[in-house]
Amino acid sequence: MATDDKITVTIEADKAFEGHLRLSDFLATLKSLNRLVNKVDAQISEGKAQHELRVTRLSHNSPIVAELALSPSGSRKVSDARAVTARTLGVLKQVQSANVREYLGFDLVKTLVDLAKPVGKRIRRLVFESGKETVDIDESFADRVRDLARTEDECFGEFEGKLEQINIHGGANTFRIYPYAGPTSVVCKFRDKELSKAKEAIGLHVCVFGLMKFQPMANWPHEIIVDDIEIYPPESELPSFENLRGIAPEATSDLSSEEFVRRLRDEWA
Fold it and tell me: Which pLDDT does position 10 carry in this prediction?
C-alpha cells in the first residue's frame, strides 16, 4: 500500500502479450498520470504545478508496479503532496463511481480519456493506490470519462482572451485564447480565411465570435468554432486618464460638473 503522499500504479498487460507490457503503453500511462497530477496540482495552487513525480520503486513481476512520490519542484521546500494525491485519487473515484459532482475542466477530462484509452485493449488492468484509496481503471471507467468529454450544449456567443498558440499543422487551424477569468484557456477552430487575422492577433487581447461548445456541468466553453475575430488595440495604444481630460467639454452643457453630478444623483433618488 502506498503512503498518502505517494501513488502506486499497477499495470497488467493483456494475456495476448503473455503478461509483457509494451514499452509505448507503459510510457503513455505514466505520462498521462503525470499530466493528471500536474493539472490537479495547478488547480490546487491556482496557477502552476508545485510538485514533480519521482519514481521511488519499480517492479516487473507480472504485473508491473511503479511507486511514484511527489516532491516539491524547483527551489520550493514546503510540500502539499498529500493534498495533491488525495485530490487526484478523489477525481478518479468520482469517475469510477459515476458520481462526478463538479466540472473537472476540459484539459483534465482529456487527460483522463488518454489515461483510460488502452484499458480493455492492450492493458488488461490498471490500478492506482494512495493511502487507503484504490481505484481500478476499467472499460466502464473509460466509457464514463468519454461521456464527460462529450459536447452537451452549443450556442452562439463571444469570448474574450489573449490569443496564443496557433497551430496550422495538417490543417488543424486552431489557436487558444487565455481569458483573465474563467477557464485557463479555450481552443478555437478557425477557417482558412481567418488565418491572416489570427496571425495578426498573436499576443493581443481579442474577442472571438462563433459557436461555443460546452461539456456537462461546464460554466465556460471548451471550444469555439470561429466566425469572426475582433482585435483589441494593445494597452500601449489605449488612452490614459490624462488623455481623457477635456475630451468632451460640452458634456455638461452650461452646468458645472458638480451641479451636473448633483442632478444625476437627484434623478436616481
Answer: 93
Grid cell listed for 172 = 488543424
pLDDT of residue 40: 92
- Mapped onto helix, strand or coil, the DSSP state of residue 122 is coil
Which residues are CB-contacts of 208 (< 8 A; sequence separation ≥ 6)? 158, 159, 160, 161, 177, 186, 188, 224, 226, 228, 229, 230
Name which residue leads in pLDDT, 20 or 224.
224
Q: Report the C-alpha gap between 94 and 88 in whole angstroms.
A: 10
What CATH architecture does domain 153-237 belong to? Beta Barrel (2.40)
Please state the domain extents for the chain: 6-149, 153-237
Mean pLDDT on 61-69: 87
Nearest to 11 by CA among 2, 1, 23, 3: 23
What are 97-153's pLDDT values in tens digits? 888 878 788 888 889 999 999 888 889 889 999 988 999 998 889 888 888 888 788
Q: Alpha-carbon distance 141 to 128, whole Å?
A: 13
Sequence-distant (≥ 6) Cβ neighbours of residue 153 within 8 angstroms: 213, 214
Beta-carbon contacts of residue 9 (< 8 Å; ≥ 6 apart): 29, 30, 33, 65, 66, 67, 68, 126, 127, 128
Give whole-number Cα distances, 180 to 159, 184, 185, 186, 201, in Å: 11, 9, 10, 12, 17
Nearest-angstrom CA–CA distance, 49 and 77: 14
How many degrees, rounded to 5, is the angle at CA 147 between CA 86 and CA 125? 60
Exposed/middle/buried for residue 72 (C-beta within 10 Å: 0-12, 13-18, 19+): middle
- Is the separation of the CB atoms in 25 and 97 below 8 Å? no
